[in-house]
Write a structure and sequence with these properties.
Structural class of chain A: alpha+beta
Largest sheet of chain A: 4 strands, mixed
Oligomer: heterodimer
Largest interface: A-B, 13 and 17 residues
Structural class of chain B: alpha/beta
CATH superfamily of the largest domain in chain A: Glutaredoxin
Radius of gyration of chain A: 18 Å
Number of domains of chain B: 3
Strand content of chain A: 5-15%
Order of helices and strands of chain A: HHHHEHHEEEH
Number of domains of chain A: 2
Helix content of chain B: 25-40%
Shape of chain B: globular
Strand order of the largest sheet of chain B: 2-1-5-3-4
CATH class of the largest domain in chain A: Alpha Beta
Number of strands of chain B: 19
Number of helices of chain B: 19
Chain lengths: ~170, ~575
């Protein structure tokens, strides 16, 4: 894995918040996962220097933390895009053509599952089941405004949705 | 709970048991060798490899390593079902394993290869699919001591548990999941950039060739072949009592005279002994200790012979550095003193090359530390392990068991028994005690061994009456034991004046460069060193006449530069 230099904004406040959380949970058995969850919610992902910091504070080894962080799909070691696409690949979505939807997303955004677009706008994650099978095929997009669910997708519909988000982002920026 | 009188039926035979911690131990004690990859009695039970499975009377399959023995149990160890399962497990492991045994350094010492032979695996029907056989992992040879080849890993986790549980280092762990799962440092960093202390115990327990000791024999062969080089070799104390195992000799046999003969045939120019410089270490370290006894705030004094321990302190306990003895290790003392000696005693104009034969993998890393290179000249040029020297002797085609014993070269081939026992946990301490005791009689030395300094326990604590004082001494081996002791010292629970630390459990005799062995306790090797000590006439460092000569003619006023170091 290549080293990337990532500048963390408001680092002091973020580390203070993390330290306070670790302090409260230091004595708890099996505390590593919730500490990593909290760190991810503070930093957006788990930067290498943050896991090193957690290792120091908790006395766990970095190798162990890396093991936990790479075992659970909920943890991210690289920053995600502004919009996280959770594309359902559950049974109902699968039989309703979720793979075609994935192809359309990949083609439109030029990324693969787990990757982020070069402009940092989208990250694609295949998920096992979103639990709303009546809407299959379905995806959920998570961003700063919250979560939005899109159901009964077709190739055309998904491209339209993605382009809509991109246009809204461009106009907001200008 | 009273365990006396309990029995179980193994393969139709009634077998008594007492307090064995699992069914596997009972079965093995009954003379049946159940195979395992992931089980070491000294480490926590993992229960992943499923090779140790047994079948109970209801046809249920249990992994014997994680099953508590119960009175009246009925088990079978090699029913048709079990034999089929074991073969399937082996075939699945082999399906996703590199099978280029002929070029693997672990060949003939590989448990996977051994069990595949033992269970008659001739054909593997599972596809070596792209997903199953990850042969694209890069080999990590960043470390001066250890080479990681994840392509040969069978995920038994022995290395992970060794590193974390015995050594308290945790440089490697499992990462990722499913087919992607691997044992790796955090972020797949090169091992050299981690907290690894180079002790090599991971390689000592690895059943396959996934973790190996770095091979430096080519460099030594090149030096030997170079007629412009004067190649001298020093042999560490612990090597001689394990070396014979490589040539089917009994464990613990002192084969130093045969090794000298073999090394002459291999082509080394002069053959010396690290036990000589261990005598120098004793003198310097004792002087330091006696001086510090008058400054109680600077105690305890920790020993500095073990480079893995030094690295551990640098990584995890830097606050202890002022308490670490400033003495160089015997390996480095030999190198610096010999090169100083060679300046005035050049036999010709050849360049001096000092080679060490060590039981240790961390010594490879120690020799290249910047503190031990002066004006571009290393004190010790190359370090090979016990196993590597055996490989050189094999390669040279020397019939080891047909050799006639020979003696070391002089002057650095003379050593005391105190220097010899450095190779076993407690040895450095005993050597220092021999030096500080005023009564150097046979009886006085003989009574030291009843103080509590001997024995293969991981932590030994005892008192030594000296003059009007009673010294408190601790001897630990295994870095986890060292860390536990440090915690007790720092909390104020205990006080010690002198602490000996060796990173490998049992001390250097169990170093990772020694011949592979599935037994943790190295009692025979320890007995071998103590026996060699008994057979020497010179019992303590001061009695070694070469030591006095070395101080007068070589070291003179340069003791600080030649024998001490600051990390």
């Amino acid at each position: 894995m290549e080293k990337e230099v990532i500048v963390i904004e408001n680092a002091t406040e973020k580390y203070a918040a993390l330290d306070a959380f670790i302090e409260d949970h230091l004595e708890m058995a099996g505390n590593l996962i919730i500490i990593l969850q909290e760190a991810q919610s503070i930093f957006g992902f788990l930067p290498r220097e943050v896991t090193a910091h957690i290792a120091k504070k908790t006395g766990q080894t970095q190798a162990k933390i890396y093991g936990v962080a790479t075992f659970y799909t909920q943890f991210r070691l690289t920053p995600i895009g502004k919009n996280l696409i959770m594309l359902c690949q559950g049974t109902a979505c699968h039989v309703n053509g979720s793979q075609l939807i994935e192809e359309a997303v990949c083609e439109e955004l030029e990324i693969k599952d787990g990757e982020t677009t070069a402009d940092g706008l989208f990250t694609l994650n295949n998920v096992a089941c979103l639990g709303c099978c009546s809407l299959a095929p379905v995806m959920m997009i998570q961003n700063a405004d919250g979560e939005e669910t899109y159901g009964n997708l077709t190739k055309e519909k998904v491209v339209e949705i993605l382009r809509g988000i991109r246009e809204a982002d461009t106009s907001a920026a200008s | 709970m009273n365990n006396i009188g309990k029995t179980m039926i193994i393969n139709g035979t009634t077998v008594p048991f007492t307090n064995e911690k699992n069914v596997l131990d009972v079965v093995r004690n009954a003379g049946i060798d159940l195979p395992t990859f992931c089980y070491y009695s000294e480490l926590s039970t993992y229960g992943a490899c499923r090779m140790c499975i047994v079948e109970d009377e209801k046809g249920r399959i249990l992994s014997s390593c994680s099953e508590v023995p119960r009175d009246g149990m009925v088990i079978n160890t090699h029913t048709p079902k079990l034999r089929k399962h074991r073969k399937t497990i082996l075939k699945l492991l082999l399906a996703s394993h590199c099978r280029e045994c002929t070029t693997c350094a672990k060949s003939q010492n590989c448990k996977l290869q051994d069990l595949a032979n033992r269970f008659g695996i001739k054909q593997i029907k599972f596809d070596k699919s792209e997903k199953a056989w990850k042969d694209e992992y890069e080999i990590d040879d960043s470390s001066p001591s250890i080479v990681r080849d994840p392509n040969k890993c069978i995920h038994c986790g022995d290395c992970v548990r060794m590193c974390a549980e015995k050594q308290n280092v945790g440089a490697i762990d499992f990462a990722l999941r499913g087919y992607e799962m691997m044992v790796t440092p955090a972020y797949e960093m090169p091992l050299a950039e981690t907290e690894c202390v180079n002790c090599g115990q991971c390689a000592a327990v690895c059943p396959t060739g996934a973790i190996l000791i770095k091979d430096d024999t080519m460099k030594v062969w090149d030096a030997i072949e170079d007629s412009n080089k004067r190649v001298v070799v020093q042999v560490a104390p612990a090597v001689r009592v394990a070396f014979g195992e490589e040539f089917d000799m009994p464990e613990g046999a002192n084969v130093m005279p045969l090794m000298v003969a073999a090394m002459r045939k291999v082509g080394f120019d002069e053959i010396y002994d690290t036990s000589f410089s261990a005598d120098l270490t004793v003198i310097e370290e004792t002087a330091e200790f006696v001086e510090k006894l008058s400054k109680p705030e600077e105690l305890p004094l920790f020993t500095s012979c073990c480079p893995a321990w030094i690295k551990y302190v640098e990584n995890k306990r830097p606050e202890l550095m002022p308490h670490i003895s400033s003495c160089k290790s015997p390996q480095q003392m030999f190198g610096s003193v010999f090169k100083e000696y060679a300046k005035d005693n050049a036999t010709d104009d050849r360049e001096v090359v000092v080679v060490s034969v060590m039981p240790c993998t961390a010594k490879k890393a120690e020799a290249i530390r910047p503190q031990f290179t002066h004006d571009g000249v290393k004190e010790v040029d190359y370090v090979i392990t016990t196993q590597e020297l055996a490989n050189m002797i094999y390669e040279a085609g020397i019939n080891f068991d047909e050799l006639v014993p020979e003696a070391h070269d002089m002057p650095f081939g003379l050593y005391s028994g105190a220097g010899l026992i450095f190779g076993v946990t407690g040895g450095v301490t005993e050597a220092v005690i021999r030096k500080v005791l005023e009564d150097k009689s046979h009886n006085s030395f003989d009574s030291i061994k009843y103080l509590g300094v001997r024995g293969l326990e991981g932590t030994k604590e005892f008192e030594l009456p000296l003059g009007d004082k009673i010294l408190k001494i601790a001897v630990v081996s295994g870095l986890k034991n060292a860390d536990n002791l440090i915690k007790r010292i720092q909390s104020g629970e205990v006080h010690f004046d002198f602490v000996e630390v060796m990173a490998c459990p049992n001390g250097c005799i169990n170093g990772a460069g020694q011949p592979y062995s599935s037994v943790f306790e190295k009692k025979e090797r320890a007995d071998g060193l103590y026996s060699a000590d008994r057979q020497t006439k010179i019992k303590h460092a001061d009695a070694n006449p070469m030591v006095g000569t070395a101080y007068e003619d070589i070291i003179k006023d340069k003791a600080h530069q030649l024998l001490h170091v600051h990390y």
